[in-house]
Amino acid sequence: MDRSVPAQVQSVERALTVLDLLAEQGELGVTELAAALDVHKSTAFRLVTALESRGLVTQVGDRGKYRLGLGVLRLAAATTGRLDVSREGREVCEGLAAELGETINVAILDDGAAVNVLQEFGTASVGSRNWIGRRTPLHATSSGKVLLAHATPAVRKGVLAGPLDRLTDATVTDPQALAMQLATVKDAGWASTAEELEVGLTAVAAPIWSGDGRVVAAISASGPSYRLQVTQFPAVAARLVAGAREISRRLGYYAAP
């Protein structure tokens, strides 16, 4: 063993090599894997057993051979889904930006934050900032509230456990108040924020669904509070919900959100 490489890191590297080998060869036995990795058969067996427990490899009947498992497809689908949202959402976002005149963003949930992966500027949003790649707090953005409302119980619990940073005087920092808002978001089918992230900025968002019935992103319209006013939220939300439904349809989701 290379003493310069921590044992745990080396195990991870070997496990990844197993996946690469199976991707290239299709099926391999423990003896073949051990030879390719230059390790003892018992080490190779422990690696494939660990990978098998996660569904990343599967044994081929009783032949002693292993191949990639369905868990690999699950991981690939997570990445592909994000790419699909950007690709399938662009035309819809362009249309909404032209219609509403405001900046349209698509955001995904990533490690406790909303991250914008697609943006289109509206006719009225000249000079607006680029939000692509920016991480924004879930509790203070319309997209974040949509994503949080449809997140797993564990994710919601983690966010509601706080602390909820106060970014403006309007930011919701009380966990119970936020929990009530999230319930309303699920019932209404859209979320909004009025100067909760930044003073003078308002936004409305709706959920985007994947083919397997999960909310994988949120589409939002944002603009200055003097132009995108609270009284306009329901009408803007209706257009966003329609746009989100079209993107969802393109992602394979056919039931009405």
From TrEMBL:
The IclR-ED domain sits at: 71-253
Annotated membrane-spanning segments are: none
- InterPro entries, from UniProt? GAF-like_dom_sf, HTH_MetabolicPath_Reg, Tscrpt_reg_IclR_C, Tscrpt_reg_IclR_N, WH-like_DNA-bd_sf, WH_DNA-bd_sf
Protein's UniProt keywords contain Heme: no
Superkingdom of the organism of origin? Bacteria
Q: Name one Pfam family in it.
A: IclR_C
Q: Which residues form the HTH iclR-type domain?
A: 9-70
Which keywords accompany this UniProt record?
DNA-binding, Transcription, Transcription regulation
**UniProt protein name:** IclR family transcriptional regulator
* Protein source organism: Spongisporangium articulatum
